[in-house]
Structure formats: C-alpha cells, structure tokens
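4.2 Preliminary Data

To establish feasibility before requesting continued support, the project team ran the inverse folding procedure on a target of 68 residues. The structure was first converted into the token representation described in Section 3, and no sequence information of any kind was made available to the design step. The complete token record follows.
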C-alpha cells in the first residue's frame, strides 16, 4: 500500500465517521425532544391526578367493600 492509498483510505473512513456522527447527533436531538414531550405529559397527568384527588377528598366512602 502506498501513501496515496493510505491517505484515500483514511479520507473514506473520516467521511463515514462524520456521517455517522451527524446521524447520531440527529438521533440524540430527536430523542431529547421526545423526552421533553414525555416530561410535559407526565407533569400534566400528575397535575390532573392531583386535582382529581383533591376534588374527590371527602367523597370517597370510608367503609370497606362488601367482599371484606
């Protein structure tokens, strides 16, 4: 293998690595957006559950169901 072939091989490898890094970066960015959306959804569900729990206080019967 002469120097030109080695240089060409390295350039090809570098091009593939740059492409892979860009692809991974896009994947991470998309996953970050998904995580942010999921966190917002969890907060909304938590707020809804808290509101329902607060509204239901005193309405739930304290007696045990008949199967006990």
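Position-by-position output of the design step:
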């Amino acid at each position: 293998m002469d120097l030109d072939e080695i240089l060409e091989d390295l350039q090809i490898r570098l091009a593939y690595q740059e492409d892979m890094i860009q692809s991974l970066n896009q994947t991470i960015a998309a996953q970050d957006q998904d995580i942010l959306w999921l966190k917002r959804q969890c907060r909304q569900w938590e707020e809804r559950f808290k509101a329902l729990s607060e509204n239901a206080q005193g309405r739930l019967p304290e007696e045990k169901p008949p199967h006990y």
